[in-house]
Amino acid sequence: MTDTHVTKRPLTLLGLGDMGTALARAWLTAGHPVTVWNRTAAKAAALAPHGARVASDPAAAVAANGLVVLCLLDDASIAAVLDGVDLTGKDLVNLTTGTPAEGRARARWAEERGARFVDAGIMGTPTMIGTPG
Predict the structure, then answer these.
(1) Is residue 129 part of a domain?
(2) What's 58's domain CATH number?
(3) Structural domain contains residue 109
(4) 54 CB burial (10 A radius; 0-12, 13-18, 19+)
(5) Which domain, by its residues, includes 116?
(6) What is the pLDDT of residues 16-73, one digit of tens each?
(7) Domain for residue 114, yes or no?
């Protein structure tokens, strides 16, 4: 007999602009436990009825899960949001728009804080997220 049970990995999402909100909704629809945080608390609160856990601040959001997805305005926003947050042992996936040089510098920054870092990109629009190709 084959075990077909798939565990949905919990994740944290920081940043709920149009793209971040689309990502959160897609992951929630797929059954992933998602913790969210946004500077504008109402954007995070709007996802609570859909099953999202709303964190009170970035530190609480990061502490909630090992996988942390960043979908913020720019590289400076990452530094501001994660300033003083314990990143030890975390997997950071950066979907924030930036340059290759910023990605390399942010990877070094994350490593110095005990985190693993992947700089990624999204090739689509928010309306394309979570829809059949």
Answers:
(1) no
(2) 3.40.50.720
(3) yes
(4) middle
(5) 11-123
(6) 999 999 999 999 999 999 999 999 999 999 999 999 999 999 999 999 999 999 999 9
(7) yes
Residue 54 φ/ψ, nearest 5 degrees: -100, 120
**Helix 100-112, helix 75-82: angle, nearest 10:** 20
Q: Residue for token digits 């950071």?
A: 92
Question: In this structure, what token pair is assigned to residue 24?
Answer: 């959160």
86, part of any domain:
yes
Residue 2 near residue 108 (C-beta atoms within 8 A): no
pLDDT band at 119 (very low <50, low <70, confident <90, very high): very high
Beta partners for 69? 13, 93
Q: What burial letters (b/e) apply to 29-43, b meaning 16+ CB within 10 Å?
A: eeebbbbbbbeeeeb
What are the structure tokens assigned to 66, written together?
């090992």
How many structural domains does the chain have? 1
Digit-coded pLDDT (tens) for 6-16: 789 999 999 99
Residue carrying structure tokens 């959160």: 24
The answer to whether residues 129 and 103 touch, using CB atoms and an 8 Å cutoff, is no
Cα dist from 102 to 70, 88, 109, whole Å: 14, 21, 10
